[in-house]
Each structure stands twice: as C-alpha cells, then as structure tokens.
Amino acid sequence: MISTVLDVIGGVLLFLGLTLMTISLYGILRRPDTYGQLHAQGLATGPGVIAVLASSIGTENAAIITFAVLAIAFVTLTSPVSGHAIARAAHERRGSGRTGS
Amino acid sequence: MSDAILIPALVWVTLLLVGGGLALVRARDVLQRLIAFDSLAVLVIALLAMLSYLRDVGYYLDAAVALALLSFTATVAAARYLASGGPFG
Question: How far apart (Å, rounded) are the C-alpha atoms in residues A21 and A14?
C-alpha cells in the first residue's frame, strides 16, 4: 500500500521534473537574448532538477534518498548564485558595449 | 521505482542532452554558451540521479553532487572573468 503510494509520487515528480526541463530547454533554444535565456535556464537549474532529485522517494532506498536530499540542498544553495553571476556579467558587458545581443 | 518509467525517462533526458548541445552550438554570445553549458551540466546531474534509481545503488549520486560542485565553480569563475576580468576582481 505505502509502497504503491511512494511509487506513484516518485513517478509524478519525475514526470514534473522532465516536463520543466523540456520547457526550459525550449526556452533556451527560442529566446534570442541572454537575459531571456537566463530566465528560461532558471527553470531547469532550480525546480526541474529538484523535482527529479525529489523523485528518489520512489526508490525507498535510504542511501539514495539521503544523497538526493544533500544534492537538493546543494542545488538550492548554488543555482541562484550562478544565475546571479551570469546576469551580472551580462549587465556589465552590456554596460561596456561589448555584447552583440 | 519501476523500469517502465525510468527507461523512457532516461531516453528522454538523453534527447534533451542533444537539444542542449544544439543550444551550445547555436549560441551567439559567450554568455549564452555559458548558459547552455550550465543547463547541460544540470541534465547530466538528472541523468546520473535516474541511473542511480534504475540500478538501485547510491554511488552515482556522489558523482552527481561532485558534478554540481564543479559546474557551479566553473560557471561562477567564468562569469566573473567575463564581467570584470578576474575571479576576484
């Protein structure tokens, strides 16, 4: 009973994460400028990979779930920082007039 | 988790990796290339996590965490270099 419920939750989270990654990649391929691509990329590096890692509860393996929680904490800490670094680099390059987009 | 879910998910993420490579080739600016590289790293992290679920062993997630650390460091260093000419400047 509980195993089936966890399996369904894991499958739904995996599907959600893959959907978010697909939307994000479509946005990266479609947006013409750097800021728009960065906006689309934040969907994959934040919620997308977190949903894929959170679907580890479907495996019911304590070692896998522990490492997935560690990876979720790490991604939650680092993905806004790297996005901010890229956005600031785009801003400063646009300010100096070197960027082409 | 059952293989009937995980194997199509692995195939789909591999197709997304091909799309990420296309984004890397199509990038016009070096920052767009950096964005495509970062999203490729995220896709490989997801691929390693799903491989860990499929084979039911934990040590692929070690590689995923290490790859997340390397990708974060590379992205921040390259972005700061492109912004101001040095990682600490």
Answer: 11
